[in-house]
């Protein structure tokens, strides 16, 4: 495509500067050389496709391109051979530019197809190549292909889980966010399942393999992405549909023009010139520009506002969207835990928060970072008082499956789960126990700050949750105003999903949905709601649904897999960009329709005039150029579009 554009530029440049009185026309022989390379080198594929269309007795865009460019090239060659010194106006630039523009459109389609391969490659990268097998108490590192169902595998802290399995010994927290979308690490104990591709936390685990290779959850996700993307057929271009009628009609009119002028007694040269004028004026320069010019302008302005539209299919379908299925974690919420409630018991709140931060400061656990962040925010809110840096924690260590403990100010403090609280025999006031239950029902994770040695006592209740993104509610409202319904589809628990949906004004909620089930939910939405269904997500667990939806929209703040699978990528994690994506898609598609309309009107008027001999090839070429400029100018009006998201 680049080579074709480089060779076409010297041919089209003189036409662009001619209105300013500048004569930069190249010698005829040089035009012939440049145009021949483009026409028969870069344009060879159009001749092959045209031949297949003729054998199938049908018309399409490729046949129209081959006929129009050949007519312009042939007429120019004939004029050059007839008078090499002063051939008059040649039309080599028309044939070269059309070939280049249509090849650009084909390049866009090819780039979209490559996304499939990239998505699958990114998913496969999550699968470890090796596993640590335990046999007779001895660990042995082996290729993953040698692991069988029933094999015992050892997984150290921080490692990616290589197989689907069930824990036979050990406790830990496992980050399953890439698989399930759950933002908080999930506590795991004996008998709990683990999924290949997830990341082990602070504790060592011994796992009995229950599924390997193609039977793992991750492998099923990969197959779902492959099958869903394979079902997406290329868009049936409006130009191709019209070409099935337009191409035979133009050929018929050109033939009748030739015969008519011969019967009328005009010379052979006049008859041929008028017939060629019909083919030249019907040469699909405006048609070739109609779609790519609007797409270039629309996708360009969208990109400047943070919306990347990857292919024409996403563009066409996005503007017809009637239902949008939102993932929760990382899409409508921040995707990381924060302290949503902190109730101190028996000591001032700021003191309890400082103690909790001191215990957690040396940990990289997401909940630990949330506690430290909450304390720092509290310090700032109180005008920069004493921080946890004044309180030194010693001997801090993680207790697998329970939490963290450390010595602070000479006392042993523990911060961890309800199970650990009960094991320590900590007494909880009934009203605080009821509040903890209420917070859990709303989808929060509960931890307790305790004095773990005599006299044991409860110091604070801490609730962790995922906060809604600023502007998410306005984004849902903006979509509703456009007639687009919003649905929440998440792998998180029902309490968390219901709380987020209520905060955003979303009435339809699908919670605790596994990755392979998300694609089925999307299919069900298509059936129950009708129309076009879009899916907005950011995680690997969203990839099957993104591929299965009519339009996949991914947050660039999420995983590469989601972005490769989706047809539209939002460069900021702002849900308001979803409405912007739909809006610019509608405006761009409207420009495409307008351009095609004017291109066909131009042909409807110009072809009869050429057939009647009122337009010679030179005037026909000028009219063709004018129609092309009109189409491009109309497309460039899209650059004035302004998105609502900031």
From TrEMBL:
Biological process according to GO: copper ion homeostasis
Pfam families hit by this protein: E1-E2_ATPase (PF00122), Hydrolase (PF00702)
Main localization (coarse): membrane
Transmembrane domains' residue ranges: 29-47, 59-81, 87-105, 245-266, 272-295, 595-612, 618-638
InterPro entries cross-referenced by the UniProt entry: ATPase_P-typ_cyto_dom_N, ATPase_P-typ_P_site, ATPase_P-typ_TM_dom_sf, ATPase_P-typ_transduc_dom_A_sf, ATPase_P-type_domA, HAD-like_sf, HAD_sf, P-typ_ATPase_IB
Keywords: ATP-binding, Cell membrane, Membrane, Metal-binding, Nucleotide-binding, Translocase, Transmembrane, Transmembrane helix
UniProt xrefs under PANTHER family: ATP7, ISOFORM B (PTHR43520), P-TYPE CU(+) TRANSPORTER (PTHR43520:SF8)
Family annotation (NCBIfam families): ATPase-IB_hvy, ATPase_P-type
Protein name: Heavy metal translocating P-type ATPase
